[in-house]
Design a protein that fits this description.
Helices cover 43% and strands 10% of the residues. The protein is of the alpha/beta class. The protein has a seven-stranded mixed sheet. Helix 8 crosses helix 13 and helix 11 crosses helix 12.
Length: 339
């Protein structure tokens, strides 16, 4: 009885304050024509960032950690508040185990820590999304990362709607194009990245980012990159010669030496560096260069947002014991006329 009282009090105090006045959007994107929007969420990324953002001392009545579930659900509710019923669309993409990247590169993402208190919360986050939104909005496919699913949805967008990708993973920036933006939340700010913002930040076009990272490397994905090439040299190389293929084209050798310096150019132009760069690009590239058997693009109408499900409230309170979000969810239901 005593522990239950402490849990209830603590959970309430830890509930994030949702001040709309502080929820500032920093617009870093060219103007877009107002259209319905498909919101595509890197749900696996949300789970991990929520786990690290909220203390593990947040737990359910049984004493099991629920920090990732609470943060994930709170983010989902905040997004749903912005959606237009029967107009906007929403899809949550989840990882589903190893992919061809792990087979090709056994150390792929091997540097990422596996937290024992996070693992049991991952299926709970998925189930929470199912109960709140509906199963048709929660997408996963064996052999595909969440990024792969997001890429398939983004590149197959139909005329008549925009796509907003919700994630903190920079890998998805390469999908930015006219009508496709990436929204990344940082504390109480929303950063919206379009083509101009990508050019400003990296100095290259969005579609060149896989080649940019192949040169620079991506430590989080265990991609080494090319020795002697940092962000500035990678940018200058791609601007000067246009593509990764051209770096090793003999007619551009003088240009590469001018950008990198003669000594560094010798390292860059070596067969080992070329192999590392093209291997890295293949791992980073989105959409995936490897087709995934069994993947079927969901029909647009199945992703149409129809409001929160009543079952979601019962799941939050009775199954997860997360009473802190009860009021937020009730307000959402009342606002969108579901409950």
């Amino acid at each position: 009885m005593g522990s239950k009282k402490r849990f209830s009090k603590f959970a309430f105090k830890r509930t994030p304050k949702r001040k709309k006045s502080a929820d500032v959007t920093v617009v870093r994107n060219e103007l877009q024509i107002q259209k319905p929007t498909m919101h595509v969420v890197d749900a696996s990324n949300w789970v991990h960032t929520s786990f690290h953002a909220i203390p593990e001392t947040v737990h359910d009545i049984k004493g099991q950690p629920t920090n990732a579930v609470m943060g994930f659900t709170n983010e989902l509710i905040r997004l749903m508040e912005r959606l237009h019923l029967n107009t906007d669309m929403i899809a949550l993409a989840f990882d589903s185990g190893k992919t061809w990247r792990n087979s090709s590169h056994p150390s792929y993402k091997s540097g990422r820590k596996r937290h024992p208190t996070l693992l049991p919360q991952i299926p709970l986050c998925h189930e929470a999304a199912v109960q709140i939104l509906g199963k048709q909005h929660c997408l996963s496919q064996k052999g595909m990362e969440a990024d792969d699913i997001i890429a398939e949805l983004a590149v197959s967008k139909q005329i008549g709607y925009n796509v907003t990708i919700h994630a903190k993973d920079q890998d998805l920036f390469q999908l930015v194009q006219n009508g496709v933006t990436v929204e990344s939340r940082r504390r109480q700010m929303k950063l919206l990245y379009g083509i101009d913002a990508i050019r400003e930040r990296f100095g290259v076009e969005p579609h060149q980012l896989a080649e940019y990272w192949a040169l620079v490397g991506q430590p989080s994905d265990s991609i080494k990159g090319v020795d002697g090439v940092g962000p500035v040299k990678a940018r200058d190389l791609l601007v000067a010669v246009g593509s990764l293929n051209a770096v090793w084209d003999p007619k551009y050798r003088d240009t590469v030496e001018k950008v990198c310096g003669e000594r560094t150019a010798q390292k860059v132009l070596s067969p080992e560096s070329r192999e590392a760069a093209f291997f890295g690009k293949r791992l980073m590239q989105l959409p995936s260069p490897e087709p995934c058997p069994g993947w079927i693009l969901p029909p647009r109408n199945s992703l149409q947002y129809r409001g929160p499900q009543e079952e979601g409230l019962n799941f939050l309170i009775e199954t997860l014991g997360i009473i802190a979000l009860q009021q937020n969810y009730k307000e959402l239901c009342e606002k969108q006329r579901i409950a």
